[in-house]
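SAMPLE LOG
Freezer: B-3
Tube label: C17
Construct: single chain, 251 aa
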Amino acid sequence: MASGSINWFKYSAPSNFYVLAGRIVPWAAVLAVVLGVIGLYLSFFVAPTDFRQGEGYRIMFIHVPAAWMSMFIYVVMACWAAVGLVMNTRVSFMMVTALAPTGAMFTFIALWTGALWGKPMWGAWWVWDARLTSELILLFLYIGFMALQSSISDSRRADRAGALLVLVGVVNIPIIYYSVKWWNTLHQGASISLDAAPTMAAIMLWTLIVMTLACWAYTIAVAYARARCIVLERERNTTWVKELVGDQKHG
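STRUCTURE (predicted):
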């Protein structure tokens, strides 16, 4: 390996990963707070009133980033699960476990804010729309993963069973994304697309981006903090954890 390059493989060891995660968490947490404050200010005080939906459309700035994160986190979980199964790295499985609660939270927020937004738009809190139903299935996948892991006492077996469930469930992500194109649904089409120009004002787009980055930074901070706790729990009988706990007690 060339001099000065970073050997990322060394962070597959729980002890090294624990240190790296500890450095990332505070920076990501601060970034999440700063971006969150800026994003909320833009959402409520800078973004203009929508001429069709009035002030109620502002829930979009929470709903859309939450919906994006619900899908993105699951894809990241699937990637970690695949790496864990192929390379048998404990840290990969720990990251899958650490990400799941945050993914479930964003999925719930997306469904809840979607209901609040849908009531004045559709006249109902819930409809069995393709987009809503597939998003609800995503919530069940998150909950099912966490339930499956908690029901198996052997952490290695739980990791592999959970990883397989995540990889099977990832097929739901493109269904969520393309549901408004594949079926005749009440849910509006995407305002932001990779193959078309945005259909919203620039300030609205930037507000969505800032809020999404805030959610992203929050996810990194919380997931890595949770992963550190998982590392300490699973490696509690190792020498380095005993030394770490001993140093903290004497400190």
